[in-house]
Every structure is written in C-alpha cells, then in structure tokens.
Amino acid sequence: MSRPFIVAIDGPAGAGKSTTSRRLAARLGFAMVDTGAIYRTVALAARRRGVLYEDDAALGPLLAGLIIRFAPPPPGDPAAGQRVLLGEEDVSAAIRTPEMSLGASAVSARPVVRAALLDLQRRLAIAAGNRGAVLEGRDIGTVVFPDADAKFFLTASPEVRARRRHAELAARGDGTPFEQVLADQLKRDRDDSSREVAPLRPAPDAVVFDSSSLSLDEVVEALAAEVRARVARGGLAG
Ligand code: DC
Question: So where are the chain's domains?
Fold first, then answer.
C-alpha cells in the first residue's frame, strides 16, 4: 500500500523540534504530527480523572476511551499552529504546562501507553498527509516509522535547550525560574533516555543535527534540502 513521504524528527526536549517541524512541514506542503502532544494529552486526561501516571490497570481503560485529534490553527491565527483536541475540547494550552511535561514523560514510560498510541500515530500520519507528513517525537525513526523516508535527530546542549524552553514559557506568562526549567529538563532527558521501552536514541540511519550553534532557520534550510533531495531520488513530486 502506498503511504505519504514520511519525515521523522526525533530528539530531546528543547532541541527545536516543534518549530523546525512546523516550518519544514509548511515549506514542503506536508502535514505535521506532534506526537509529544498526544502523550501530553494522555497525561492531562489521567490527571483530570485522578489516574496515577504509573497505574497501568487504570491507564488501559482510560486510553481506550480517549479521542485525540489535531485541528487546524484557530481562524485568523495561523502562526498559533495546530490545535490539539481531546474529544471536542481544545487542550492546546492546557497540555503545555511544566506539570504536563513531566506527566507526559511519566506516562510515556508505560508500555501500555506506548502500545496504545503506536497505531494512532501511524494512522494520523497516513490520513493527514497525501503528499507527506513530518512526525516529531522521540521514537519516530526507531519505532513508529522505522522505514521513514528521511530521519533526523535534532539535539543541542542542555543549557541551550533549557534557555529556549525558559523563553517559551516566559512568553506565555509562565514565570518558572531558569534553574527549575533546567532541572526538570535534565530529569526528563534522563527518564526518556533510560526507560526500557523505546528509549530516546538516534536511529542508526538518522542524520544528526546539533542546533547549539545553528539558528533554527539554518536547521530548517538544511532539513528541507535533504528532504527535497530524497523526494527527487524517490521519483515523487517535489
Ligand atoms: O516533545 P514533548 O516535550 O511534547 O514530549 C513530551 C513527553 O512525551 C517527552 O518527555 C517524552 C514523551 N514522548 C515520547 O516518549 N515519545 C514520543 N514520540 C513523543 C514524546
């Protein structure tokens, strides 16, 4: 069965994946699937229903009842990016708090959660992109689409990543201090990389970019050039 051209972008928190993926997808006319937003939405739903992040027996039925979708940005504000819907509710802002970052990291370590979300991520990508889809996450190139057409691993030093995340939070009026952002991020890095299922690591065939000293524009430029070259080699319409 034919499927869209799949671009996998993996890497740790704060490496610039979201901005890069959004801009790359817009530039190529591809759909975009932010898989971290899906894990965040599961954490939010668990929190609201009083389900502990480690409670596999309760997480299973919770997941079975969740409807998570992406919707276009609000009319008149295209720069806001895709909206994330839990049922009919727009949870785009509610899932972006520091608490939900740690919650998402916790639920994402549970095999029951990863198994339930695997198929959803694949379906969203295949349904969303008739030309192609950019998927952003931690295990896209290793687990979700091991046969992705282009794989990238974006990283940057912990300080640079924490500085970016701190600025993002501040822009939203969240006053979490830098030291706290850095400490939370180091914990997430450690947890995401050391978990047993689908730990964060570059796929052997991923192109690795360190964005510590590159601007996001330069990163997008480099990724777009690489994708276009691969699209051309594959004989698909570029
Ligand atoms: O990219 P993000 O910060 O929105 O991701 C939130 C958490 O979800 C992150 O700590 C790890 C987890 N995650 C994952 O395990 N696998 C993915 N494909 C995406 C996110």
Answer: 5-232
Cβ(145)–Cβ(8) below 8 Å: yes
Provide the 10 A C-beta neighbour count for residue 4.
18
Instruction: Give the pair of three-digit tokens for residue 16.
Output: 């610039």
**Res 125: pLDDT:** 92
β-strand partners of 85: 69, 90
Residue identified by tokens 């079975």 is 64
CATH of domain 5-232: 3.40.50.300
- Ligand 1, atom 18, lies closest to the CA of 137
Half-sphere exposure of 68 (CA within 13 A, CB side): 28
Q: Which residues contact 51 (CB under 8 A, 6 or more apart)?
A: 45, 58, 59, 62
Summarize pLDDT for 96-127 with one digit per residue, the tens.
998 999 999 999 999 999 999 999 999 999 98
237 CA to centre of ligand 1 in angstroms:
31
Ligand 1 near 137 CB (within 6 A): yes
| pLDDT per residue as tens digits for the range 164-204 | 989 988 998 999 999 999 999 999 888 888 888 878 889 99
236: pLDDT strictly greater than 60: no
pTM attached to this predicted model: 0.90
- Residue with CA closest to ligand 1 atom 10: 105
Q: Exposed, middle or buried by CB within 10 Å (0-12, 13-18, 19+), for 219?
A: buried
Residue nearest to atom 1 of ligand 1 (CA): 36
